[in-house]
Structure formats: structure tokens, C-alpha cells
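Hi V.,

You were right to ask for the full record rather than a summary. Here it is.
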Amino acid sequence: MPRFKDQAICIRHLDWSESSQIVSLLTEDHGKIRGLAKGAKRMSPSGIARFSGGVDLLTAGEVVATTRPTTELATLTEWDLQEPFPHLHEHLGAMRLAMYAADVTNALLAEDDPHPEVYTALGQFLRRLAEPESHAGALLRFQWSLLVACGYRPALDIDVVLNEALPARATYTFEPIRGGFTTTGKPAAHGVWGVRRETVELLRTAATGTATGTTCSVQRANQLLCAYMRMLLDRQLPTMDFVLGK
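Predicted structure:
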């Protein structure tokens, strides 16, 4: 039974019994894992010492777990809470965006497939949610980082239909199936979305690690990336409404 210790963020959990939990954790070095934390909710001194009173959604800590080839669930033996992100419980908008980030991360990543860059991006995003004025920009950087890590980076400089440099235009169309922009499509066509030039330019800044633009342009860019991930997943996650504005 391989035993490991890693930094982790809880991205999903459910009660398995009165005292135990099943959790999904995004770990730094082992990727996404699902595990059973027996006795995690016990308020006895030994239970609190081992699990910090339970593994809460959208908290970060150090996990100790063992895995077996005969079961899909790891066995969590310790959880040391390190970052509870209390600001998520003080601002409804922050909590909603954090839940969306956890949902889309859980949906896009396969289990046992390490993506330390996603772990870092998610942790940074949760911390940035402490500042309400930075929510939209922080979300755009996180969504971009997640798409890049999963191999779905939208092409920003090549016309994905003509296979040539994307020229300067006032508007473009985004073809999610091809994963990029073109000047040939019609926004009314099925599966093709109209996009303004400033949205493309904003995504280029996100690709460099920043996300500067007007409030409306950042919101449109966030909605575009969210809709793109909805297409990739072939389903809409309930928390996507928080980004799409429905």
C-alpha cells in the first residue's frame, strides 16, 4: 500500500456516514485523488488531531493517504488544515466563483494525473478572491491556466480555418470545435460564436499572466472561456450559471 504525503485543496466532498467523508482532493504532486476519510468528523481529541475536525470544501492542507490497486478510493489517514480561506464565507460572489473553479477543475482533470500548475493556479485564485475588485481578472487567469494545462489552449494568433495569421478585425468568430478564432464564420451559424477584437486582445494578456481590460471585456472573456469548457465537457455544470450570468 503506497503511502504519500502531499499538499492538497479539497474540491468536492460528501458525507459517507455520521463520522466519515468521501472527498476529492487536488494535490500538488499526485493530481486529483478521491479518498475516504474514516472518522474525519469525530470531535474526539484523536479525531481532531488526525483530521483537524473534518475536511471542508475549498480548504487547503497537507494530506497523508494510502492507495491500493484493488480500490478506487485512497484511504486518508491525516489532514492538517493550513488555509481555510475564510473570506469565501464572507462574500457570496467569492464563494460562488470558488465553487465554479472547484467544479470545473474536478470535471476537466482525470484522476492520478499530476498537474502541479493547476494546483498552484487554483490556490492563487482562491487567495485573490479576498479582494472583490480583482474577482473577474483572477477568474480569467485561472480559467486560462486550466485550459492550457489540460491541452485546450485557444489559438489566438492563427485563423483556425484558413491556417494563416489572424488579421486585425473589429470582430471574429470563435469555433470551439477547432479551438480558436477565424474571420470566415458567421456568428449565427450553429456552434460558432461572435467575439469582439478586444476580447481576443484581452485573452492575449491573460496568456502572459495578466488580465487587464474594462469590466465588460473581462466579463465577456470569462463567459467565452466558460462556454468553451461547457462544450469540451458536453454538459453544463450547475455552477457555470455564476459565470454565464443565467
